[in-house]
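Example record

Each entry pairs one chain with its bound ligand, zinc ion.
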Amino acid sequence: MTARCPCCRARLRGAVQCPRCRADLSALFKVWQAASFYLAKAIQDWQAGRYEQSLVALEQSMKLHKTELALSFRDFLVHQQCQAVLALLADKQLWKARQQLYRGRRLLPCSELLQQLQLFIDDLLFQETDDKSGHLSSIPL
Ligand SMILES: [Zn+2]
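C-alpha cells for the complex follow.
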C-alpha cells in the first residue's frame, strides 16, 4: 500500500513533509508506526498461541490505521475461526461448534460470515431441540 497525504492525496514515498502541499506529517507517521508495531505484535502473539492478546493488539492497530495488511490478517483470523467451527459441525458436535463460534464472535463481532454461521447453527440446534422436547429453555449460552 502506498501512503498518501491526508490533505492532498499526493504519494508520500516515506517523506515526513508532503512533497506537494508541504503538510507536516511527522505526527501522522508516529501514529502509523504505532499501528504497525501493534500489527506486528498481533501476528507474533498469534504465532505464539496467545490468541486473545493477538486480537487485542490487532484491534489497537486498526484503531490507529486500517491498513490492507491488518484487514487481511483479520480475514485470516475469521477464516481460522470458521474452519474450527466447521470441523466441529462436520463431527456433529453442535454445542461445541456453538461455543467455539461464540468465542470467535466475541473477538470478531463485525464478521458477517461468523454471524451467518451462528444463525445456521442456531437453526440446527433449534430443529434438534424442537424434535426432542419442543422447547428451547434448556439452551445455555
Ligand atoms: Zn499533501
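Residues 5, 7-8, 10, 18, 20-21, 23 surround zinc ion (CB under 6 Å).
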